[in-house]
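RECORD TYPE: inverse folding
INPUT: structure tokens
STRUCTURE:
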């Protein structure tokens, strides 16, 4: 494997490089400003579709412009905001369904940290570690209040669900021992368990991409 030898290039140097590769730059100063505030590495993903094949040659297609890449960047940003807004509604609904239905069916407010509620002990141990991490770093008022008021090792599931990432909550759902409970949760969204699992995996990935400003 080779050592990484690339060095830092200023926005002005990067604009010159892009022009040398055939990209039409309408306004040099404006382009430099965009690269300075967006970052070339992030923005380069939107330049990629404008390259000729093979992409490794780094030559732009005839007529390719910086503004075309900027339009794609802006479109992706707006799409990400729209998606995040809708995913939030789904996420809140899923959190509520998992907590409410499982708490009701088990009669156990602490089911999320009770190993008897899960069928795979190894998976439970991993998710419990993730719960411990989130709980240790949480500074939410309701978590602090619980720590200062009660002697229980863990808060009830409806508190934990508010501080856990969606991906962790999905893993917890998938490991619930009772298939009937998992069915009832999925039916809350008019879905079967396999489809619900699949959709939640996709939604979790999409949510993380939106949350980390990645390309969607």
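DESIGNED SEQUENCE:
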């Amino acid at each position: 494997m080779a050592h990484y030898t690339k060095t830092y290039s200023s926005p002005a140097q990067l604009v010159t490089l892009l022009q040398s590769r055939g990209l039409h730059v309408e306004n040099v100063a404006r382009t430099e400003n965009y690269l300075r505030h967006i970052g070339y590495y992030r923005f380069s993903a939107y330049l990629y579709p404008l390259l000729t094949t093979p992409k490794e040659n780094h030559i732009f297609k005839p007529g390719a412009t910086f503004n075309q890449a900027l339009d794609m960047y802006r479109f992706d940003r707006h799409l990400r905001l729209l998606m995040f807004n809708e995913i939030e509604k789904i996420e809140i609904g899923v959190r509520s369904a998992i907590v409410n239905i499982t708490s009701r069916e088990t009669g156990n407010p602490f089911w999320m940290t009770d190993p008897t509620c899960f069928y795979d002990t190894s998976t439970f141990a991993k998710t419990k570690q993730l719960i411990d991490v989130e709980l240790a770093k949480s500074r939410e008022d309701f978590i602090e209040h619980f720590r200062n008021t009660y002697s229980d090792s863990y808060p009830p599931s409806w508190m934990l669900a508010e501080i856990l990432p969606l991906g962790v909550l999905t893993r917890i759902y998938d490991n619930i021992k009772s298939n009937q409970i998992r069915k009832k949760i999925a039916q809350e969204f008019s879905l079967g368990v396999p489809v619900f699992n699949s959709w939640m995996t996709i939604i979790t990935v999409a949510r993380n991409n939106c949350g980390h400003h990645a390309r969607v």
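NOTES: The first helix runs from residue 11 to 20.
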